[in-house]
Amino acid sequence: MTDHASSPHAGPNFVAQMIAEQIRTGEHAGEVITRFPPEPNGYLHIGHAKSICLNFGLAERFGGRCRLRFDDTNPEKENQEYIDAIQADVRWLGFEWDGAVRFTSDYFDTLYDYALHLIENGDAYVDELSSEQARAYRGDWNTPGKNSPYRDRSVAENLAAFEKMRTGAFAEGQAALRAKIDMASGNMNLRDPIIYRIRHASHHQTGDAWCIYPSYDFAHGQSDAIEGVTHSICTLEFEDHRPLYDWFLDHLPVPARPVQTEFGRLNLNYTITSKRKLKRLVDERIVDGWDDPRMPTISGIRRRGYTPAAIRGFCQTIGVSRSDGVIDASVLEAAVRDDLNHAAARAMCVMDPLKLVLTNVDADTVEQLSAPGHPNRDDLPERHLPFTREIYIEREDFREQANKKYKRLVLGKKVRLRNAYVITANDIVTDDAGEIIEVHCTYDPDTLGDNPADGIKPKGVIHWVSASHGKQALVREYDRLFAAPHPGRGAGDFLDDLNPASLTVHRGCWIEPGLADVTPETRVQFERIGYFVTDRYDHAPGAPVFNRVVALRDTWGKIDADRA
Questions:
Q1: Are the beta carbons of 538 and 475 closer than 8 angstroms?
Q2: Can you spell out the DSSP letters for 520-537?
Q3: 470 pLDDT tier (thresholds 50, 70, 90)
């Protein structure tokens, strides 16, 4: 993989530039060690993909190592399903972590000793204020906090109280261990933050060994230090936490001194990345699980048919900056489209079939035509297209009458069948309701190839599939999950902005016979329609299921222009 900073098409990457300068000046010597530290309380989303590409990319660029660590300090919201999914997502994106998977829970004993160290040095105390009282004592942005009445306990009293916490003598919420910093600080994170809280919950790694768990802020930096991380790369919301990160490192006997640097997170319009909101979509069955192809989760966009190369290329394009911003979803879609334009084989699929009967073709005729697997790639095999008396075309590709702008099949006019012959529409057959059920046509046998006979000027080119040799498929046409650029902005619920057309299911579609037996996660371009992928789970040979990855063109551009 090409790193952000070294690609000729990469956006700016101030972190890579910073590290390069640190190495040049001697401020940093030795290996560059980074880490990707997700909390296993949900599936990763597109924003995490940027962090993955950055952390692993930096390690690769500077010849270092990147570690995968689960910051698992909240057992009530974590489970093995998320752990397994996150590992699969990182590997799917094309990265491999250094050594074994690590867990913050691996260091619970050490973190507990660090807490004792703070108590013994007078830098932490056990607070027995209720949660409501603690909030009142903390103050707000305009009002300084005030000291808890428990803040001046002796070291011996705090050690005894912390032992009671450790042995389960306190109920949840009855006590917490706090760092003794500054209740009047303008940085709310320094107003005696919680180090340990009580949770009578079994942990997915440690079982029932603990009933107290370290806070994320306490565990995060110390885990970095224990692992020898040199560069702790975090998103911008942790900037106000950095003084606390450094305070703990200053007050504890840690084996290394990692340095935290913040970058702007990835925000896409028409998209939500809040785990709480994503979980609500799953819990309320608005989507079909965390890996629904409309979800912005990495599992979802994989099932949608996005490629690792497209995601990595997108992250390179947008770069890494010091400020948050909103990227138009069309930029991501364009990256996917550009990748698939080169990578995806071509094929034909008729989504809304209308039967054509070629009256000058014998009923038992099967002519095997050929078509390129890709217009610009010789390594993809040719496709074989059975040409028969009865074929299907898209219903919208035929009209009885039309103006000159309509470039498809019109009664009495000519059109070319893609990779096949020129045909002329002569007559129609309707049912009792007046619906057209067949179009009778003739074909010109001298028009195969790019140069039709003199005087034959078809108005356009349409796709088709043999009615007798084609195969049926289920095709799911996915679109953006939300119809508003900023879901939930304002007083409304974000669910009010759902796109009612985010999924359209087409049954009884007709595909080229060679597509029926391809493997799951095979990507193709349905010519004239869009890019599609065989579903990761639902597709099976003989029972094909295709998901639309992305349209051939940006269909949302005009919508956004009309809004402006």
A1: no
A2: TT-EEEETTTEEEEE-TT
A3: very high
User: Among candidates 482, 546, 478, 525, which has minimal Cα distance to 329?
Assistant: 482
- State both tokens at 561: 């222009």
- Token pair of 293, please? 């192809």
Residue with tokens 């940027």: 50
- Sequence-ordered list of residues with C-beta below 8 angstroms from that of 234, at least 6 positions apart, any chain: 241, 260, 261, 262, 263
Q: Which helix (H) or strand (E) holds 226?
A: helix 216-226
* pLDDT on residue 455: 60
Best CA proximity match to 48, nearest among 40, 57, 38:
38
Tokens of 268: 């896409």
Question: What is the arithmetic mean of pLDDT over 332-351?
Answer: 97
Residues 381, 62: Cα–Cα separation, whole Å: 40
pLDDT greater than 60 at residue 5: no
Tokens 């996150």 correspond to what residue? 86
For 135-171, letters b (16+ CB in 10 Å) and e give eebbbeeeeebeebebbebeeeebeebbeebbeeebe
Sign of torsion over alpha carbons 419, 420, 424, 425: negative
Rounded to an integer, what distance in angstroms lies between the CA atom of residue 525 and that of residue 512?
Answer: 12
Is residue 6 over pLDDT 70?
no
Residue 268 to residue 330: CA distance in whole angstroms: 9
For 176, the token pair is 């917490």
pLDDT over 60 (residue 9): no
Question: Which domains, ranges and CATH numbers included, belong to the chain?
Answer: 4-268 (3.40.50.620), 275-343+473-563 (2.40.240.10), 346-469 (2.40.240.10)
Residue carrying the six token digits 């050690």: 159
Long-range contacts of 289-295 (CB under 8 A, 24+ apart): 290/42, 290/43, 290/85, 291/43, 291/536, 293/476, 293/478, 293/547, 294/478, 294/479, 294/480, 294/481, 294/502, 294/503, 295/43, 295/45, 295/481
In the predicted model, what is the mean pLDDT of the chain?
A: 94
What percent of the chain clears pLDDT 90, i.e. is strictly above it?
91
Residues with Cβ < 8 Å from 287, sequence gap 6 or more?
281, 294, 295, 481
pLDDT-derived band at 118, boundaries 50, 70, 90: very high
Contacts of 28 (CB under 8 A, 6+ apart): 19, 22, 230
pLDDT band at 383, cuts 50/70/90? very high
The contacts of residue 222 (CB under 8 Å, 6+ apart) are: 107, 110, 111, 114, 248, 249, 252, 254
Q: Average pLDDT, stretch 527-550?
A: 96
Active site residues: 39, 265, 275
Query: Which tens digit of pLDDT belongs to each residue from 189-246?
Result: 999 999 999 999 999 999 999 999 999 999 999 999 999 999 999 999 999 999 999 9
2 confidence band (pLDDT: 50, 70, 90) = very low
Contacts of 493 (CB under 8 A, 6+ apart): none
